[in-house]
Design brief:
The chain is α+β, with helices and mostly antiparallel strands. The protein is built from 15 helices and 21 strands. The relative contact order is 0.17. The structure holds uridine 5'-triphosphate. Residues 96-103, 147, 178, 202, 204-205, 233-235, 310, 384 line the site of uridine 5'-triphosphate.
Length: 406
């Protein structure tokens, strides 16, 4: 795209401010800026009003989860089916590590954070140890896809390289960078991060599958005939990855996806809640959950009681249903560094929007979802904050409780 074309193109979209400093740029900067403009997804901004008012259907409580008791009773049956699929190489895993982890206030990629006290024991290592437990049983190394962001990719890859991929075969690990979306002010004007660079941000954890496909890794899924993908967050240091019983239960119960859930610790716990929307499974994020539903109880128990732990199993075939702009964008109000009157400002309060798709929205598109209940003391230790709830401190306590030496 040349300058004249870009000018008209931006004018038609009300975004001509992106060329404000064009005259001041070097030849290579101009080229880079025009290239970035050409590849931007403007439709996100166009739909800003629509995205602000995502309409919900009729919300009801989710049906009963497969309970901890049922899982104990049927463990062998569930595990046999799951282990068979793993042994046949029909399952892969996806680690979501493209987030900014801003609440933790740690400068590196969150997975590199050291949970150890007397030795190095990073979040990545804890999760790779969980994977090893399964591969030791099956004797097969499933493909592991690691989604990073353009800001943390190099550091993440280096961390794995320097630790010899924690003993996992290098050719079974596939790093990929998640796609981005532009950021804008509250009036929908796209920000410049520098005079020669449009402000962009990772497009949310719902971008994991489209980014995987866009990166060309769909061929690994095809080549290996992968039927199921276990998607998990970098936050939870106690989670079981490719848990055979979870895989087996989802298949036996004939669901197209599964979600590991915990009974919510209280109405205000900051976890998404599994519900039913117009008769289909859906997840409502804690900040979008209406107060009256959040607090509703029956016989002393929360009616909306299943909190998701960000560990899902998706049927690969059905994931294609989530492509092609089917996922809604959520508008996150953030403090975004941007150019203002020729100077780069770093605001200390929200000044605009970042656009994020969420993995929770994929669940609804799957049509059926098995809620699989796990014991929080054994499988749920999220590291979101430095201190307080869901923090490094609480996660360390839970690791010790599970006999993990720190
Ligand atoms: P969070 O919702 O906790 O977001 O991510 P975050 O950006 O990591 O953390 P805060 O809110 O800034 O403190 C939940 C999971 O989704 C991944 C994260 O890496 C984490 O595993 N994620 C989030 C992505 O992979 N990409 C994103 O764009 C956002």
């Amino acid at each position: 795209m040349n300058y004249e074309r870009a000018k008209t193109y931006l004018y038609q979209r009300g975004q001509e401010q992106l060329l404000e400093y064009y005259e001041e740029l070097s030849e290579s900067e101009r080229k880079a800026l025009l290239n970035q403009i050409e590849n931007l997804n403007f439709s996100i901004i166009k739909n800003i009003e629509k995205n602000k008012t995502v309409k919900r259907g009729k919300i009801q409580p989710a049906g009963d989860a497969v309970s901890v008791q049922e899982i104990k009773r049927r463990r062998i049956q569930f595990e046999t089916v799951g282990l068979n699929l793993l042994s046949e190489n029909k399952v892969g895993a996806v680690l979501l590590a493209g987030g900014q982890g801003s609440r933790l206030g740690y400068s590196g990629p969150k997975g590199t954070f050291n949970m150890g006290l007397t030795k190095e024991l990073s979040i990545f290592e804890l999760q790779m140890n969980s994977i090893k437990k399964i591969t030791e049983i099956t004797g097969r190394h499933f493909p592991l896809f690691i989604m990073t962001s353009y800001t943390n990719n190099a550091e993440t890859v280096k961390f794995f390289e320097e630790r010899n991929y924690f003993g996992y075969p290098r050719d079974r690990i596939h790093f990929y960078i998640q796609d981005v979306a532009p950021t804008c002010n509250f009036d929908g004007k796209i920000y410049l991060d520098e005079k020669s660079r449009v402000s962009i941000a990772p497009n949310g954890n719902g971008g994991w599958y489209s980014s995987l496909i866009n990166s060309g890794l769909g061929r690994v899924l095809d080549r290996n005939n992968i039927e199921w993908l276990n998607v998990y967050s970098v936050d939870n240091v106690l989670q079981k990855i490719c848990d055979p019983a979870f895989i087996g239960a989802t298949v036996i119960k004939q669901c197209r996806c599964g979600a590991k859930v915990v009974k919510k610790a209280g109405p205000d716990e900051k976890v998404g809640v599994l519900c039913s929307e117009d008769g289909k499974p859906t997840i409502i994020e804690y900040y979008e959950m209406p107060e009256n539903l959040k607090n509703k109880t029956k016989k002393g128990e929360l009616v909306y009681r299943y909190g998701v732990t960000l560990n899902y199993l998706f049927n690969v075939h059905d994931l294609n249903l989530t492509l092609g702009g089917k996922l809604p964008y959520h508008l996150a109000e953030k403090a975004i560094a941007h150019m203002e009157n020729g100077v780069r400002v770093i605001p200390d309060k929200p000044c605009g929007y970042k656009f994020e798709t969420l993995v929770v929205d994929m669940v609804k598109l799957m049509g059926s979802c098995l809620a699989y209940e796990v014991e929080r003391e054994i499988e749920f230790a999220p590291v979101k904050n430095a201190t307080g709830n869901d923090s490094v401190e609480t996660a360390r306590e839970l690791l010790k409780h599970n006999g993990i030496e720190l």
